[in-house]
């Protein structure tokens, strides 16, 4: 790209040309991006500042929290609560919603985030990231409640993630395709690197935690087994496998070169629909993938059409290249 376009300039020009980023939403996205810069800074220092390791607490889902999980959560809350653009926030790391305190003006947006996705990779210097999703607070002039957050993913007005890898990359959609920005640390700004990101419809690469294979449902076993049979099997081609164990990194690879990502239900905890969270992980990633021409389902239904019933609800996830996600979804229907 010959001319360097900053995130700010991109957002301003989008609003001017398409009217799809009102100024409050622009402020929100810029504040989230600023928070991500600060998280990126903390992540890159790691042991130098003594912030690796467990925090000695658990989140609402009973998962051990890392110090960086908590720091990232605080950075996002503090950055976002005073700007006047938000009514409330919800986080994978907090049991209840965080309503903007009375001392600040309340805006009309709701922000949800997984402050640091891929927690098991924090201490081992592998890519992790922040995932976020933005909705409008439903109309009615009432005080904001948890119920306001239980909107279908298709109602999102913005979604994205920031990947803290060899580069720090912010990936965003406001419903007009997917764009990527890389952090220029010297300049301190996110610079546009790719527009109109497209996920190839076909792929020969899948991502799943294979160690859970014996616990999967039949349709998932069938799909993966057929991939593993390669040229000798019904697919007639070889497949490669990748699993970073950070959804942000796996989804980023899929947005870059295609692939299929799966985190299915399994029979160890049959009452749990899956491991990943609908509101903080599946909805934003599902929308990004759709906006790039891919597909995202829970095996039966489009993720974005699911009606959430609880803030921390979990869901099975199949997303990525259209033909592969369509196939594994077909297998669930017994076809
Ligand atoms: P987290 O939000 O607690 O980090 O958990 C979500 C992560 C995803 O990023 C990733 O796809 C998955 O959990 C990895 O799970 P596993 O440890 O089974 O490989
Ligand atoms: Mg997560």
Number of domains: 2
Please list the strands of the largest sheet in the order they lie side by side. 4-3-5-6-7-8-9-10
Please name the fourth-level CATH homologous superfamily of the largest domain: Fructose-1,6-Bisphosphatase, subunit A, domain 1
Rg result: 19 Å
Which ligands are bound?
Answer: 2,5-anhydro-1,6-di-O-phosphono-D-mannitol, magnesium ion
Characterize the structure shown.
- The protein is α+β, with helices and mostly antiparallel strands.
- It has two domains: 7-194, Fructose-1,6-Bisphosphatase, subunit A, domain 1 (Fructose-1,6-Bisphosphatase, Chain A, domain 1); 205-332, D-Maltodextrin-Binding Protein, domain 2.
- It has seven helices and 17 strands.
- The protein has helices at residues 7-18, 23-45, 67-80, 218-228, 247-257, 278-291, 322-332; strands at 54-58, 64-66, 86-91, 98-99, 109-117, 128-136, 158-164, 168-173, 178-184, 189-194, 205-207, 240-241, 260-263, 276-277, 295-297, 314-315, 317-320.
- The strands form four sheets. An eight-stranded mixed sheet has the order 4-3-5-6-7-8-9-10, sandwiched between helices. A five-stranded mixed sheet has the order 12-11-13-17-15, with helices on both faces. A two-stranded antiparallel ribbon has the order 1-2.
- The longest helix is centred in the N-terminal third of the chain and has 23 residues, at 23-45.
- 2,5-anhydro-1,6-di-O-phosphono-D-mannitol (AHM) binds next to strand 5.
């Amino acid at each position: 790209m010959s001319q360097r376009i900053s995130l700010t300039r991109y957002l301003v020009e989008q609003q001017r040309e398409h009217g799809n980023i009102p100024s409050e939403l622009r402020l929100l996205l810029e504040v989230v991006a600023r928070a991500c810069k600060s998280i990126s800074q903390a992540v890159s220092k790691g042991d130098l500042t003594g912030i690796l390791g467990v925090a000695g607490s658990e989140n609402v889902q009973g998962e051990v929290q890392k110090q960086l999980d908590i720091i990232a959560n605080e950075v996002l809350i503090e950055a976002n609560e005073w700007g006047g653009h938000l009514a409330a926030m919800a986080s994978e790391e907090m049991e209840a919603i965080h309503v903007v305190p009375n001392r600040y003006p309340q805006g009309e947006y709701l922000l949800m985030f997984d402050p640091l996705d891929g927690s098991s990779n924090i201490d081992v210097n592998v890519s992790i990231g922040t995932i976020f999703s933005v909705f409008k607070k439903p109309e009615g002039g009432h005080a904001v409640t948890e119920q306001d957050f239980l909107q279908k993913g298709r109602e999102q007005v913005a979604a994205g993630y920031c990947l803290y890898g060899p580069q720090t990359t912010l990936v965003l959609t406001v419903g007009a395709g997917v764009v990527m920005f890389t952090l220029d640390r010297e300049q301190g700004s996110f610079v546009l690197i790719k527009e109109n990101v497209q996920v190839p419809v076909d792929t020969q690469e899948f991502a799943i935690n294979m160690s859970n294979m014996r616990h999967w449902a039949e349709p998932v076993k069938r799909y993966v087994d057929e991939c593993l049979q390669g040229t000798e099997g019904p697919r007639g081609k070889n497949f490669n496998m990748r699993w970073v164990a950070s959804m942000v990194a796996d989804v980023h690879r899929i947005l870059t070169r295609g692939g299929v990502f799966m985190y299915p239900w399994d029979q160890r905890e049959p009452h749990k629909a899956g491991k990943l969270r609908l509101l903080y992980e599946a909805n934003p990633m599902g929308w990004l993938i759709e906006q790039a021409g891919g597909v995202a389902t829970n095996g039966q239904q489009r993720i974005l059409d699911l009606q959430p019933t609880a803030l921390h609800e979990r869901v099975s996830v199949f997303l990525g290249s259209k033909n592969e996600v369509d196939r594994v979804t077909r297998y669930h229907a017994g076809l």
